Amino acid sequence: RLPKRKKRVRHDQASPSVVVVGGGIAGVCCAQEIAQLSYDYRVILVSASSTLKEAKSVMKVTDNLEEISVFERRADYFKIDNPRIEIIDGVVEYISLDDQEVVLSTGSTISYRKLCLCTGAVPSLFAENIPNIIGVRDLESVEGMVQRLRSARRVGVVGNGGIALELIHTLKFCDVAWVVKDNYIGNSFFDASASAFIASSMHAAYPNDDNTEVSVEPHSDVTAVVSPIGPYDDRVAEGKHIHGGAIGPEWVHKTGLVSTLLPPEVTSRQGALRVEYGQQVCAVHVKTPPSGMWVRVGNVEGDIPPALPAEHWNDSFSLHLLTTEGKLIGCDFVVSATGVTPCTSYLSSTPAISRDSVGGIIVNEHMQTSRKNVYAAGDCCSVQLNPDESDNHQHHWFQMRLWSQARVMGITAAQSMHCDYVKESLPEGAKDTAPEFWPTMFNIFAHITHFFEYKVVLLGRFNAQGLGEEVEKSVREMVITKDGLVDHKHRHQVSQGQNFPEAEEMTCYCSPADLVERHKIEIWTRITPGEEYIKLVVKHGKVIGALLIGDTDLEEVFENLILNELDVSRYGIGLLDPDIDVEEYFD
Amino acid sequence: MPEEGAPTNVDFTRPVGPVRTYEEEMSFIKRLSPYKFQISPGFVPNMNVPGVFYANEALQELVFDELEQHSKTGGYGGFLPAVKQIANVAALPGIVKCSIGLPDTHSGYGFAIGNVAAFDMENPESVVSPGGVGFDINCGVRLLRTNLTEAEVGPVREELAQLLFDHIPVGVGSKGVIPTSAQDLDAALEMGMDWSIREGYAWAEDKEHCEEYGRMLQADPNKVGKRAKKRGLPQLGTLGAGNHYCEIQVVDEIFDARAAARMGIDRVGQVCVMIHSGSRGLGHQVATDALTAMETAMARDGLTPNDRQLACARIQSQEGSDYLAAMAAAANYAWVNRSSMTFLARQAFAKQFETTPDDLDMHVIYDVSHNIAKVEQHMVDGKPKTLLVHRKGSTRAFPPHHPLIPVDYQFTGQPVLIGGTMGTCSYVLTGTQQGMEETFGSTCHGAGRAQSRSKSRRVLSYQEVLDKLADQGIAIRLASPKLVMEEAPEAYKDVTEVVNTCHNAGISSKVIKLRPIAVIKG
Q1: Global confidence as pTM
Q2: How many CB atoms lie within 10 A of CB A342?
Q3: Which of A189, A484, B35, B164 is the 20 to 30 Å CA partner of B143?
Q4: Cα–Cα distance between B479 and B166 in angstroms, integer?
Q5: Residue in A455, A553, A577 closest to B486 by CB
């Protein structure tokens, strides 16, 4: 079953091989760091794609927040700056733990002393193997999407994470139908009220807000037929597609694809946006060539409403989405931005390397897997932190498959491999002299990004992550109505004596009473419409998370307050008083 | 909400002491001279010594406004005005002479920023308080000189700013001049600038022009918790946000040519580099760990300060000495930080001018600490005393002939570096004998903020500020361009007002005025 092994890249005793698999952010950062740490290693980077992702011009915003720009380079250019990294073009077939070898699909093998798996993740499509439903992750898939945009009139977007948000921000020039499963947009970063704050600029970006019902044009030649759920066409199941590394932050802008590939007459159009809140796609209908019949396909979820009468189809679209609320949305193509799945199928013959239910390789805070000498970093791994007994502080970190975490994980894995190797090669009794690195990324969850021209800073448990599903839900859905407006009834405006001087332009809120009473959790927010949105999650008088939208410049002080675990209950929401300079105060 | 571990019978959200009207409060404050005010005992309970603060006409207004606001609202919000904080410090056990507020004083955690307080080391009751040092331990300013002039640097300031910016280390990776292993960090914490010299990032003579020779000997890395070290590891050699910056400045005016000459400054237009940074996350954690430990110790030792934020411990107690050892280590870390940035500035200049830092005469003029507590000898009531002097947001300013200042400055007094802010000027002062007598040899540290950042943001438009800076010929290289607005000069009590008040009050004297031509933040 397994391909026969051909030539071997021999393990050289004098210079131990460190093999890094994956040319994405985690893999490249890992290879660069290990090459930096010692000249003793032979560093081999196995990449399935001929372009490599690099993180460049990193800028520290605070101790733990970094702005990163990611760019792609062809492997031969990459080599000029990184002469010590050998790049092998190849796809991993399986890992042979006994021989300490990586076996490629070509049959060639590479032996390793230390191995770091950075094989990333693939977009999990809500419906597989349907033409015109695409995922977006690497440069290639973005290019494919942009090509389709040339002629598209209406694009469907499914998903509610960062990629979907950025797409909506970019696709202002065509009509967009956005299906989100929550009652608000951007659920991976925002709570409902932050979402309402962002949504107002989102709607401003689409001047022709499309609140009309979906136009349903009768077409006599078309009949709806329900087909069994399954792949629609074998031709699209063209075999394993190897994805390149994730494209990185603000990919649409950075790649400049939209502006360079699309003619101005396309980008100057003004599109309309409709958002279908609280719904999922339950069926996809595609037109079958050559007969032009409409067929229901796809591995979709939920109860499927009955087939629709023929006059509902709009024949000018290539597919129709049917939502759980029975809305039929015609689109030229659909972008599925419903998260990612770790790409680790090559480990199916290597059960000794433990993976979790979604396929993520389980690693500890040193990026060590369940097997010695094998490490993993980036989107392909799932970090399980062992509580440090000497350190009884709460964790302010949790994993999200973000480029910022991929980068630090890659570096951390390199430091661990180096540290472990040195320790192993030292004689007994001299082990203490090995360098010790501390994985500092786990100090605090810290992420910075930009949406709709706003700077967005996420610190600690900004949506009360890890405090139980009920609490988290309650924090996320604090102030939500179906149409994304803030519902003031759910909030307690601070009492008269505690009002802030500019109350008319700046509003401050405390959290709903049930959160305070039942869970000892308070939410303090300050909102200046169109300018800034500040939310603090406070538990037992200590700030445990912060969401900052706009140029608040409060990231450093709140990062410090979260890490300090200082009791701030005496200030109450006064901490957000715009006339108090909290940063100086806690200097 | 009840606080964990807090005594339940005390409501810390309310100020201690009677609720008075603004007029009643003001009856405790007396003007001693045009620049000096006294806060009489009784202003807050249990004052052991009076409070004193320095302000001129413009600055006193800010102080009194804050108090008036406080009286009106009945002290809601947990933020005390600076004068109340100065008075609360005067109620701490073992304090001598007076609790001093400098012209740039404003509200801070526990102690006001710009508060100096000294405690008698021989008095077993005397305390040390982390709030009197601040969170960013040994936050400070360093000034480098060059032999270049504005005519040479002006045309290339954009390139220089970019070079400097590009060289600032970027965190977790092992590139750059930052220690990344636990062992490196321990060595840096113990050795301070001696570590930088050993590693080749600093010149041996740099430490001659540093307070404490860039190394506090009582530093003990073992007293710095693992959590603090973890926070410190990725931060070494980075500037930090807020008021931390690196500036290329030119000499704008020389007030005292003799003292300036001792510092290697001999002409208007000469180019200098100012670096403002501290111990960052590591310092924050050292301070917080100590506050937590001391809260427990306070109950044991029967210490009940007016404000719970004034958590303190007897100097001779375990908690007290542990804190001083950890604080010293954090201070060493801050010096390594400033040394790393000095190295980068020298590299950038050498690269730009295709020569060596040596040939550019890029020596450290001086390096001052703003947030620190030190054991010093002072005269109190005509008798020499050994004191633990807390300086929070204030600068040591020793007079001529003091044994602890470098031989180069024996006849001029210790240089004091006052960082202004972007678009405004900075100053070099020297210590005076009067300052030694009145303020334990201390003076201001910079421009205090007159307005909060968010308020200033709404008053000033971003473009307005940028245009203004451009008009002044200042090149800006910023992590986030919006910072220009936030750090706009109008947000601060004018640094010139602050410096002039110190000069006129006689607690330090002006030597050089500098103005920026390029700013690097981030």
Answers
A1: 0.85
A2: 24
A3: B35
A4: 11
A5: A553
